[in-house]
Amino acid sequence: MGNKTRVIWTRNLFSFWAVGQGLFYTAKIDIYSSELPDRLDNPIGCFNILYDIGTLSKRERLNQIVNGYFTNKKFHLCFISHFHEDHVNGLKILKENNVYIERLIVPYVSPIELIALSLSSEDDWYRSFIINPYLWILKNLNVKNIYVWGSGKEKPYFSEFPSMPEDYSLDDRELFKDVIKDNEEIKEQFFSDYPELREDDGKIKFPEQGGYFEIRYLWIFLPFYLEAEKAKLEEFQKCLKEKGIENITTNIIMEKRKERRECYKKLFGDLNLTSLTLYHQPIIYNKSNYGINVITPFKGYIKMSNSGQFLLGDINLNTQDRYEEFKQFYKNYLKKDFVFQVPHHGSFENWNKAFLKDFSSMYWIINAGKSKRYRHPSEEVISDICQSGKCPVWVHEDWKEDRFLIEQCIHHWW
To answer: What are the E-state strand segments in 304-402?
Structure first.
């Protein structure tokens, strides 16, 4: 860096909101530079990120949180892990508040998967949403671009930290970038499944697995999608046809529920097929860097060595082949994590004890309703985490605090 003494640092807020049986996670990353006057009061860039927004518990609490905390009404990145009601019904609130979303990242889900997912709820709004989530998003949300993420065997493009240039720009307009390649196969399949969306072709992007998003030279966001088991979906479709449902489109979501449920129970153990996962971490250049975490409600100050976070939605990784595929994709980031969101509200069915060996997180976050109506979280899961010497955190709707909050300051380079 020559004789320059410029310091770049970020002050960050990471929140697992106490919405109970659902998931609502946000990140706020503010960038500061020692070059600017009033540098402690005026960030050069402010970025808001969201991962899932929904609950089956106290829905009014979700309204209060969004209306009370998100006055700027803009998210730079919004990830939806999957289309279950308890992960998406807060999208209605974003619509009501006209929240602007620059990049909305959603998984590619086939019509037959949507038919299966529709069995999870009788809610009128949800049934209208799940007929075609992509169309609902385009018609109802203030979104610049939708990124439909498909599965694949590609490795992450991001393999090592890029070099910080001497003329690093502090222009907010240039601070965020996509590092993606087009997935033509998914694009062709998507428009075959949902031809009514072709007119919105320019607004929808189809990234190849391995792509990522970056706050330039400061932070990376790396999604991964593991597709649902094709063999089971094919059997589900075959069963529907045997029951006289020949036209397999999402229009049948409003009818023939009995026949669909009979087929589903025959083939699937639960309604959680898969999820779009997310790993994110800061990019740090100075090896003498320090970072401090302040944890609420624990009021603890922790000097950190790891700073990555894993968000897993409701993904099921309890079989060896699926877990290995997930682990191989993120192999360069194992043991760099500080926070791990336990999949599917701490359900034993989606749990893999190998998580505790392969990941280094101190805090294992479980978002689940206090009443345990769905038997979440599993006592076995909590016991496994405790016995490993790590800390399970059950974030439910009756917390005294409104969230599990990590306040963080990181010096990236100087």
So the answer is: 308-311, 337-341, 363-367, 391-395
163 by Cβ neighbours in 10 Å (0-12 / 13-18 / 19+) ranks as: exposed
Higher pLDDT, 202 or 212: 212
pLDDT at site 246: 74
Question: Does the pLDDT of residue 291 top 70, yes or no?
Answer: no
Q: What is the DSSP letter of 12?
A: E
Give which of 332, 369, 402, 293 is closest to 20, Cα–Cα: 369
379: Cβ contacts below 8 Å, ≥ 6 apart: none
% of the chain exceeding 70 in pLDDT: 85
d(CA 110, CA 238): 15
pLDDT in tens, 323-339: 999 999 999 999 889 99
C-alpha atoms less than 13 angstroms from C-alpha of 237 in its C-beta half-sphere: 15
Tell me the per-residue pLDDT of 125-153, one tens digit each, with 9 for 90 and over: 998 999 999 999 999 999 999 999 999 88
User: Element (H or E) spanning 333, and its range?
Assistant: none
Q: Return the half-sphere exposure (C-beta side, CA atoms, 13 A cut-off) of residue 213.
A: 20
Closest alpha carbon to 201 in 187, 182, 213, 212? 187
Q: Where are the beta strands (DSSP E) in 204-330?
A: 204-205, 212-215, 219-225, 276-282, 291-296, 300-303, 308-311
Any idea what DSSP says for residue 208? P
Which pTM does this prediction carry?
0.93
107 cis-preceded (ω within 30 degrees of 0): no
Please report the pLDDT score of residue 295 as a whole number: 74
pLDDT for residue 233 is more than 90: no
Question: Cβ distance 94 to 68 under 8 Å?
Answer: no
DSSP 94-154: HHHTT-EEEEEEEE---HHHHHHHGGG---HHHHHHHT-HHHHHHHHSEEEEEEEE---SP
Phi/psi at 233 (nearest 5 deg)?
-65, -40
